[in-house]
Amino acid sequence: MVKFSVVIPTLNEAKFIERCLLSLYSQHTDESYEIIIADSNSSDGTTRIAEKYADKVILCDKGISLGRNTGAKAAKGKYLVFIDGDSVASHTLISAYADAFKNKNVIAATGPIFPLEKLAEHEDAFMRIGSRLYTESWMKFLIKINRPAFIGSNSAFRRDVFLRNGGFREDLSTFEDGDLSMRLAGKGEFIFHEDARVYTSIRRLKKWGYLKFIRFHTTNTFKYMLFKSAHEHYDTIR
């Protein structure tokens, strides 16, 4: 019986997907798990690479929420783990989430996210401090005040709770991950696990620059909290 289903939405991720899948293929865990790719008709060979490692490769229309929801509906696991195609999982990701869900009151879990690419020494130090502050200290604080805003590239949910509450909102182009976790607040416990680590590409940050990146996500968070809506346009960066 499969216990965990790892769902990865993809669109033209041939540059990253093999490394992502290899990190999931070689998890240090005794837990049973499957790997599901939900691909939005990639044209760069993403699915050809994915078929070497994934248990299921499903085609769907474009949209990150749709991809995640499509994968979740096809999943057999009791727990859903979401990671993006341009990310790499630590070898402890599945075992950490297994540890988190030992508490039957926990319905959702997350962990730290670090930059995947190597940077110049001064920039690398800045990014790692920023990652710690945002994806660790800030996340822990939001969980503590019952206002969780998880990041989709590293999050896990009980599948029954996820499906019962509609999964990711497919009408949102951005902040769909924060929306889901906030909608689930109060329905069970959320937990941050230090060993559920993911390393994700900072290609968007490098393309946009720090100021645009911070401004976009800060204003998006406030827009959602005030009006339950989010920015509609999100550049495709490959």
Explain this structure:
The chain is of the alpha/beta class and 238 residues long. The chain has one domain (4-227): Spore Coat Polysaccharide Biosynthesis Protein SpsA, Chain A (Alpha-Beta Complex), CATH 3.90.550.10. Helix content is 40%, strand content 19%. The protein has helices spanning 17-25, 46-50, 64-74, 93-100, 121-144, 159-164, 176-184, 203-208, 210-227, and strands spanning 4-10, 33-39, 56-59, 79-83, 87-89, 106-110, 113-115, 154-158, 189-192, 198-200. The chain has a seven-stranded mixed sheet, with helices on both faces. The protein has a three-stranded mixed sheet with strand order 5-10-7. α1 (17-25) links the parallel β1 (4-10) and β2 (33-39). The longest helix is centred in the middle third of the chain and has 24 residues, at 121-144. The chain is globular. It starts with a strand and ends in an 11-residue tail after the last helix.
| Class of secondary structure makeup | alpha/beta
Which segments are poorly predicted (pLDDT under 50) over 5 or more consecutive residues?
A: none
Net shape: globular
- By CATH, the topology is Spore Coat Polysaccharide Biosynthesis Protein SpsA, Chain A
Query: What is the top-level CATH class?
Result: Alpha Beta
Q: In total, how many domains does the architecture comprise?
A: 1
**Count, helices:** 9
- Could you describe the largest sheet, including whether it forms a barrel? 7 strands, mixed
In total, the number of strands is 10
- Looking at how many chains there are and whether they match, the oligomeric state comes to single chain
Helix share bin:
40-55%
| Arithmetic mean pLDDT | 91
Name of the CATH architecture: Alpha-Beta Complex
Output the strand order for the largest sheet: 3-2-1-4-8-6-9
The CATH homologous superfamily name equals Spore Coat Polysaccharide Biosynthesis Protein SpsA, Chain A
Q: How are helices and strands ordered from N to C? A: EHEHEHEEHEEHEHHEEHH
Instruction: Please report which band the strand proportion falls in: under 5%, 5-15%, 15-25%, 25-35%, 35-45% or over 45%.
Output: 15-25%
Our measurement of the CA-to-CA distance between the termini, rounded to an integer number of angstroms, reads: 36 Å
